[in-house]
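Person: I keep going back and forth on a fold encoding question. Show me how you would write down a chain together with its backbone fold. Please set it down just below, with no commentary around it:
Helper:
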Amino acid sequence: MVQINFAKREINCKLVYYGPGLSGKTTNLEVVHKKAPASKKGELTSIATEGDRTLFFDYMPLELGKVGGMNTKFQLYTVPGQVYYNATRKLVLQGADGVVFVADSQPDKMDENIESFQNLEENLREQGLQPETIPMVLQWNKRDLPNVCDVGELDKKLNKYSSPTFEAVAVTGEGVFPTLKKLAQMVLEKLNKEYGLNPEKNKGGGAPEAKKPEPKPEPKPEPKPEPKPERKPEPVAERRAEPKPERKPERKPERKPEPEALPKDRRPKGYDMGSGGRSPQPEPKKGGKGVMILLVLILALAGAFIAGGYTGKLNDVPALQPLQKFYNDKLAPTLGGGSATQGE
């Protein structure tokens, strides 16, 4: 079963070498591993059993190029030849993308070849693979030995599905790479049918290259719609200014008419012309406070002199004689004292 590794951009295919014991399966893998470039092959691993051994390694051939822009990588396996290792055969055959059946060309090995091919058909069907459709190549090995079977006889007894066949001498490498190359091409052609790849063989007659995407027909330009005449925006009706409510003038309080001024002959004393004829205000008497203050001072002074016994001396001072007289006439009778002259 093909495995696609998108991270490494690799397509991994599994190829299995099948056939009777000692037919040359292991020799095929050893020759491929020996002659393949070191950078294009993995480590050859061997699983030894009592009567046979299973080999496998990874192989990335240069001449097969790329498929779908990805490198093709093949994993090559062999199966044990003995019949009692059938469980191991099934396990190795699981998920195979192609099969190389290696037949021994010696006449005494014909029955083993037929039995092994029938076992291959049974195991393929158990794995869900059809021998009629799976890529398969038959290799007639050991063609260098004397008294080998005729190619036509081998083809008649073993090639039931008209698969490609190759003569080979595995120990010398003859026919080994043509067999592998043909099977790889068949596997990649099947990939082309399943994944829609375009098979284009390279100069080495290798695998199909990646299918180039077919150019899509250019879409016809859609007819541009005729531009509609632009509609001019209708003029917005000017809003009429709503009449503001008239403000009623504030009514000022009516001023009462001022009474006519009274004639001068009828004006009372203290009548104020600026008062609008209102009632006159009495004028304050001038000098009232000054008289009272002066009177108090005089009384205080007179009392002081009387208390001090100096009333008799007032007459000696000409400036104080009027005061002495005022005292004798006005204050002395009120205070109960004698005149200033009585003490003399």
Q: What stands out?
A: The radius of gyration is 74 Å. Residues 199-213, 340-344 have pLDDT under 50 and may be disordered.
